[in-house]
Amino acid sequence: MPTILSIKDLRKAYDGGFEALKGVSLEIDEGEIIALLGPNGAGKTTLISTVCGITMPTSGSVTVAGFDILRDFRQARSLIGLVPQEIALEPFERVINTVRFSRGLFGKGRKDAAVEDILRRLSLWDKRDSQIRALSGGMKRRVLIAKALAHEPRVLFLDEPTAGVDVELRKDMWEIVEGLRADGVTTILTTHYIEEAEAIADRVGVINKGEILLVEDKDKLMARMGQKQLNVQLTTQLDAVPEALGGYDLTLGDEGWTLIYSYDTKSERTGITKLLTDVAGVGLQLRDVVTRQSSLEDIFVSLVKEPEGSA
Amino acid sequence: MNWSAISAIYVFEMARFFRTIAQSLISPVLSTSLYFVVFGAAIGSRIDEVEGVSYGAFIVPGLIMLTVMTQAISNASFGIYFPKFIGTIYELLSAPINFLEIVMGYVGAAATKAMFIGIIILITSFFFVDIQIQNPLAMVLFLVLTCVSFALFGFIIGIWAGNFEQLQLVPLLIVTPLVFLGGSFYSISMLPPVWQTISMFNPVVYLISGFRWAFFGVADVHIGMSLLAIAGFTGLCLGAVWWIFKTGWRIRQ
Ligand SMILES: Nc1ncnc2c1ncn2[C@@H]1O[C@H](COP(=O)(O)OP(=O)(O)OP(=O)(O)O)[C@@H](O)[C@H]1O
Ligand SMILES: [Mg+2]
User: Fold this and answer.
1) What is the pLDDT of residues A212-247, one digit of tens each?
2) Which CATH architecture has domain A3-223?
3) Which residue's C-alpha comes closest to atom 6 of ligand 1?
4) Beta bridge partners of residue A293, listed in sequence order
5) If you measure from the C-alpha of residue A91 to the centroid of ligand 2, how many angstroms do you get, rounded to a whole number?
């Protein structure tokens, strides 16, 4: 897949000198869905705003399908749709008019069929003549998406699309993103929710304090960091791992009531059978056995956690 | 030029105007009628003619100018301030348009609205006084230039304003006094000499004088000076807009 968005050493210092982006580089392929994960203030919105032309970069370069966002801003911006983090809509305007407005603003001629299609896809068709102020928060978010899609962009930025959105709408939103992918649209979304990244992203980027800490295929990431844990709950409390089990990578948990065994799901032999036999062999009784897959969340937390002593 | 974007902004802004058409028109028409009652009937009965024109008719161009200037400023300043205030400006900034296209959309709409109201006032005044327009072409030219230049000025105020108070500040503290002291309701020649000299520093005097000349062929200053003044003011505003465009002042961080 060709690269559609290329960000090179992008820096952004706000007035007052605060550097919100400290040299971000990122290449995004056409048609992929990438999730940017990061805590509050990481610089996600700043990154998006800079690419979309809302703030000026301090240095570095960004191209969209080869078009420089500053020099060829018309071509570059025509390809981009943006759903902002905060809901910002004209309260007294009618849904269909705001969507038409967006289409016109991006230089596309009036095409009612296209607007109707977008409104239907977002289940807004019935509300097309409602004033924005009469819509619920979730519907307003849909309107923002409809506006972003009105000019048929090739790259869609969703800045925390599911913040404050119920489970139902969140699912809908993921479906919309999937549907757009089928049309070849590239989606870059930011989120605090690990499940969101896990559910729809092809790749995950972790950003913190204006720096990209890691960008990787979600599956690879999960696999690489994807250790599994086997928790063996015991009927007796231990104060140390029995010597006879010293050959395993074991720790004690739950105040000695549980043996925790970490293993790699990818390796050929997990060693579980042998471990359980040996556990029985030293005379321990099992109460329960639980396995736990480490999630993106664990990976995320371990990445953005301050190294010991640096705080 | 992204004409589609300019027209999208224009249409959107005009829709706002027509949505509240009743309010948009009632208030200027009502206040103009009041001016006619107060100045035309009450004061006008004591001053019968100014430079050969009945007082009631004499104040019509000034009244139109007064309303058109304030309307152009408030429409344009509000038009661009509102998106900043509610956050919808993100869309303008991320669209494939440059600042001049944004200006054309907003200023064009604000100027049209002001012009519309100006014409309504002119029509209203026909009910009160008997007026003939000697030079309709010049009248239209002055009206259009005034609408556009004051809308530009209002746009700059809207970009500059950081809150609603500031949005009102410039029109209230600068424009209204200048307009009232600009000879809307009197001829400069009626003032004592000192005030006549001071008035010459008021740019609005030139505009009202020129506009009045188009109606009655009488003027406080030479029509060439009036044209120069309006051209100068327009040029000044365009320069400021160009500078904002170049620096991204108060728009893009
Ligand atoms: N206009 C601004 N002026 C000055 N500093 C700003 C401005 N906007 C953002 N910042 C700062 O830049 C940093 C990054 O902010 P940004 O909004 O990009 O974070 P974010 O990752 O989107 O956070 P969140 O998850 O809370 O939305 C923050 O420290 C913020 O305070
Ligand atoms: Mg943000």
Assistant:
1) 988 989 888 777 665 678 888 999 898 888 888 888
2) 3-Layer(aba) Sandwich (3.40)
3) A14
4) A228
5) 23
**Predicted TM-score (pTM) of this structure:** 0.85
Nearest atom within ligand 1 for CA of residue A18: 5
The answer to whether residue B252 sits within a structural domain is: no
Q: For residue A302, is pLDDT > 80?
A: no
Confidence of residue A303 (pLDDT cuts 50, 70, 90): confident
Q: Chain A within 8 Å of B94 (Cβ-Cβ)?
A: yes
Mean of the per-residue pLDDT values for chain A? 89
Strands A258-264 and B49-50: unpaired
- What are the tens digits of pLDDT across the range A76-114? 999 999 999 999 999 999 999 999 999 999 999 889 999
Give the number of domains in chain B: 1
Quote ipTM for the complex. 0.88
- Whether residue A311 is predicted with pLDDT greater than 60 in this model: the reply is no
Which residues of chain A make contact with B94, given a CB cutoff of 8 A? 52-54, 77, 80, 82
Q: Looking at ligand 1, which residue's alpha carbon is closest to its atom 8? A: A46
Residues of chain A with CATH 3.40.50.300: 3-223
pLDDT tens per residue, range B44-59: 777 777 777 888 888 8
Residues of chain A with CATH 3.30.70: 227-293
Handedness of CA B94, B99, B105, B109 (dihedral sign): positive
A227-293 domain in CATH 1.20.1340?
Answer: no
Flag whether B253 is in a domain: no
Alpha-carbon dihedral angle through residues B82, B85, B91, B96, given to the nearest 10 degrees: 70
Cβ atoms of B90 and A50 closer than 8 Å:
no
Minimum CA–CA partner of A76 in chain B: B96
Nearest partner of B167 among B157, B177, B156, judged by Cα: B157
Smallest-distance ligand from the CA of A12: 1
Instruction: Write out the residue range of the structural domain in which residue B25 sits.
Output: 3-247
d(CA B94, CA A212): 24
